[in-house]
Each structure stands twice: as structure tokens, then as C-alpha cells.
Amino acid sequence: MREKILTFIEKNSRIDTQELAVILGVDETAVMNELEAMEQEGIICGYHTLINWDKAGVEKVTALIEVRVTPQRGMGFDKVAERIYNYPEVNSVYLISGGFDLMVTLEGKTLREISQFVSDKLSALDQVLSTKTNFILKKYKDHGTVMAPKAKDERIMMA
């Protein structure tokens, strides 16, 4: 039941527990208890709202920053990642494979604000060897949700 609940709430965290219980064929109390248990266990880490900031008329710049670091003895990448994710500007930090070690995502109001963060805070850390900043220009799909308007079929119907 856990996996089914997680699958449904991952797509729609606002789904009504009664509706979810009907879909799963169980009692609503069982669903509520399972959700609460998964929250306590840290399986469910939070509930977020996906916002299309362009449509809201709010200027935001999102950057994906690849970071190459020197791992610390006995702690690997964990301590460096912790220093980075403790900055309030940082949305996420991932350990990745490839030419870089960490992927850091953050949002700012301007390109300059992001660049300032990278040069003043991120690159200034002793363990950081190099960074590569990629700015998101347009979101087509985010967290499984299509963000771009669907293209209209403008072909002329032939009989």
C-alpha cells in the first residue's frame, strides 16, 4: 500500500485522503495512518507546490551549477555538500557521476545575483576546485508536469 500511496501523492499531493482510500480500496483511516507514519519515518519529506513563475509575472533565474570538489578525508563529499546546502539560496544539492561531483540548483532574481553567489560563496570554499554554471532558459517539463503550452495542430483538414 505504501508504494501506491507514494505514487499517487507524488503526482498530486493535494489528493483527498478519502478519494485516495477509494482508489486503493482501503479505509480512509488506514491511508491517514500510513501517511503520518511515512512522514515520521522521513519517507515523505515535504509537500511542495509547482509554480510557473513566468505566468505569475515574477522574474526568477534558475541555475544548475556543476561543482568539482576535493572530498574530505573520512567524510567523502558529505561535509562539502552540507556546507553548500546550508546556504539559504541553494534549492538542492546532488552527488552526481561524470566530470563534476555535485550538482547545485539555486534561484535568484538576476543572472548577476547567481554569478555573485557562485564567485563569492561557492567558489570561495576551500574544497571547491571548479564550477560550471548553466542557466535554465525555459522549462518545458518540471517534476513530471508539462510547463510549456502544447503546440496547436495548425494543419488544414483534407477530406
From TrEMBL:
<dbReference type="InterPro" id="IPR019888">
    <property type="entry name" value="Tscrpt_reg_AsnC-like"/>
</dbReference>
<dbReference type="InterPro" id="IPR011008">
    <property type="entry name" value="Dimeric_a/b-barrel"/>
</dbReference>
<dbReference type="GO" id="GO:0005829">
    <property type="term" value="C:cytosol"/>
</dbReference>
<dbReference type="GO" id="GO:0043200">
    <property type="term" value="P:response to amino acid"/>
</dbReference>
<dbReference type="GO" id="GO:0043565">
    <property type="term" value="F:sequence-specific DNA binding"/>
</dbReference>
<dbReference type="Pfam" id="PF01037">
    <property type="entry name" value="AsnC_trans_reg"/>
</dbReference>
<feature type="domain" description="Transcription regulator AsnC/Lrp ligand binding">
    <location>
        <begin position="65"/>
        <end position="138"/>
    </location>
</feature>
<protein>
    <submittedName>
        <fullName>AsnC family transcriptional regulator</fullName>
    </submittedName>
</protein>
<dbReference type="Pfam" id="PF13412">
    <property type="entry name" value="HTH_24"/>
</dbReference>
<dbReference type="InterPro" id="IPR036390">
    <property type="entry name" value="WH_DNA-bd_sf"/>
</dbReference>
<dbReference type="InterPro" id="IPR019887">
    <property type="entry name" value="Tscrpt_reg_AsnC/Lrp_C"/>
</dbReference>
<dbReference type="InterPro" id="IPR036388">
    <property type="entry name" value="WH-like_DNA-bd_sf"/>
</dbReference>
